[in-house]
Amino acid sequence: MNLRFLPITLAISAAFAGSAQAQNLMSLFETARGFDATYKAAQYQYTANLSKGEQAKAVLLPTVGLSANVNRTEVDLLAASQTVKSQSMAATINASQPLYRPANSATYEQGMRQLALASIQLKAAEQDLMVRLSQAYFDVLISRESLDFVKAQKLAVAEQLAAAKRNFEVGTSTITDSREAQARYDLVLAQEIAADNDLRIKRMALNQLVGLNNIEPKSLSRMAKLSAPESSSIDQWVKQSSEFNPAVLQSRASLDIAKLEIKKAEAGNKPTLDLVAGFTPTRYKNGKGLNTSQVDTNSNSISLAFNMPLFSGYATQNRIKETVALEDKARSDLDAAERNVAQATRTAFFGLQSGIGQVNALQAAEASSQSALDANKLGYQVGVRINIDVLNSQSQLFQTKRDLAKARYDVLLGQLKLRQAAGTLTETDLASINALLNP
After folding, report:
1. N or C end of the chain: which has fewer CB within 10 A?
2. How many distinct structural domains can be found in the chain?
3. Which has more confidence, 109 or 21?
4. In the structure, what pLDDT confidence band is assigned to residue 83 with cuts at 50, 70 and 90?
5. pTM attached to this predicted model
6. Measured between alpha carbons, how far is 385 from 373 in angstroms, rounded to an integer?
7. What would the mean pLDDT of 268-290 be, rounded to a whole number?
8. Domain residues for 14?
9. Burial label, 183 (beta-carbon count in 10 A; 0-12, 13-18, 19+)
């Protein structure tokens, strides 16, 4: 069997073994969105923020209240030796409509910013879930292929060990060849144990993320072509990140909210004007009270309530100073976010370019290592090479194969991370990578 196709063969066999569930990246993403606690918490926070934003509208709308009371009065007339009883019932409906309240207007605008901020935060959580899922998915594939390569290497070393023992028995090689092969075989056994344990841990991490068991991810097709970033200009990616990255957008929204907080604080020195209306029906038992002036009535009132703050113990002035300082802090936070995002974008861009270069170099190294192994095997057969040369060539080949497999998955993950840094990561990008997996 050609060793370069061994990982695919083993992966396909494992996908249909036992009760394993063969899952692609998109199907697991849909499952993770309904299970991952971090993403669900972000969804609940989004719903809460929507309600909080709607609350801001209330400060511009009228308020209406209803109150009622029942009174019973008894008066003893000592001169007439008589007790006079009276009972009344009254209800009051009050309505107030703000006409001029600068603080309420600022609160409403802050609420609208909160609605926008809620969408940004949910988008950031979704992008984070895509990257976390892809990382866990590819970690399983990398570990699985590493284990497959170790098993293939164990088989190759076992054959070389058997050949060394046979050659020693017939006297064509020394005991050194057998001992070197045995040492290499024991080392590969230890590597197999470590690789198997690593795969088990990576599987548990993926299972925990999506809430399923026995997941068997579909491996990357050997025919898949890994593409470079659409734009070769790093400045273009940095520009996109400054416009669309959720961290930058959140910081900008926070700065806007901080500016509106200053308006609210300054409103503490401004007057307020409200329109107040009331209706109060009063009813007495038998239509009258204790005296002739107490009769059933309906009272209506409409008024303008004006309030002008004069002095609040310097609370307003100090509140303004506080909000100005918080605005400066929000502006500094925005500067830090823009710098960090720009740096992360550059790191992701260069990392992706480097990854593609590594894949190309490792593909060439794989072909060279295979040729070197074939040459050393032939040289060993004709007696110009020793067993350790063959073993070293085998180790180099399988290490190159493991590095190449990891580099390919790192490139896929690098594509997602670059788009995440630029703030443009969507399900379409995840579907494009999913299309590169084996069907």
Report:
1. C
2. 1
3. 109
4. confident
5. 0.83
6. 11
7. 86
8. 3-33+101-270+313-434
9. middle
